[in-house]
Design goal:
Order of helices and strands: HHHHHHH
Helix content: 55-70%
Distance between the termini: 95 Å
Strand content: under 5%
Radius of gyration: 45 Å
Largest sheet: none
Number of helices: 7
Shape: elongated
Structural class: mainly alpha
C-alpha cells in the first residue's frame, strides 16, 4: 500500500501538484480499516501531524500490525496439522466393489419382499381392515360369509336378489 501511495504522490508531484505532508498523513490514517481506529486516534493525539513523516508513520503502522498478529497467534490455539494421504487406486476399487455388493443385496431384498413399503403402510392388517362381524381380515360386513349365511337362512329368495348386481 505504501509503495502505491508513494508512487501516486510522486506522479502528482511531477505534474506540478504539491500535497502538504500533513494532508498525506491524514489521508493514510483515514483509509485504514475500522479495526485500526484506536491506533489512528493514538497517532493523531500523541504526534504532531505537521512534522510526522511518511516513513515514520508507515513504520509505526507496521509495528502495530506485527503486534496484532502476535496477539492473535497467542489467543488462537495452534491447530494440529492433519496429514492427508493419497489413496491408491486399489483402495478406491475396493470401496466401489463393496458399494456394488451392498447395492445388489439391497435390490434382491426389495424384490423378495415385493418392493419398498410406502410410508404409513404395514404388512399387517389394521383394525379398520377387519370385518366387524366375524373379525377376519380381507373383507367387510357387506361381503362377510356369516351375514350371507344368515340372510339365506332367513329368506332365501331375498338373499339371492341382493347378491345380483344392478341391471345396466
Amino acid at each position: 500500500m505504501h509503495i502505491r501511495f508513494t508512487s501516486s504522490i510522486h506522479e502528482l508531484h511531477s505534474l506540478g501538484d504539491v500535497i502538504p505532508r500533513n494532508k498525506l498523513v491524514r489521508k493514510i490514517l483515514s483509509v485504514l480499516p475500522g479495526s485500526w481506529e484506536s491506533k489512528v486516534n493514538a497517532i493523531t493525539e500523541a504526534k504532531d501531524l505537521q512534522i510526522l513523516t511518511m516513513d515514520k508513520l508507515v513504520d509505526n503502522l507496521n509495528t502495530y500490525e506485527m503486534k496484532i498478529k502476535k496477539d492473535s497467534e497467542r489467543r488462537e490455539p495452534k491447530k494440529e496439522k492433519n496429514l492427508a494421504l493419497k489413496a491408491k487406486s486399489s483402495d478406491l476399487s475396493d470401496e466401489d466393489s463393496d458399494m456394488a455388493y451392498l447395492t445388489k443385496r439391497f435390490q434382491r431384498m426389495v424384490q423378495r419382499n415385493g418392493g419398498i413399503p410406502k410410508r404409513g403402510s404395514s404388512s399387517k392388517a389394521r383394525n379398520n381392515d377387519l370385518c366387524h362381524r366375524c373379525g377376519n381380515p380381507g373383507h367387510f360386513i357387506k361381503d362377510c360369509p356369516l351375514v350371507k349365511q344368515e340372510q339365506y337362512k332367513q329368506n332365501p329368495n331375498k338373499a339371492a336378489k341382493r347378491n345380483l348386481g344392478p341391471d345396466k
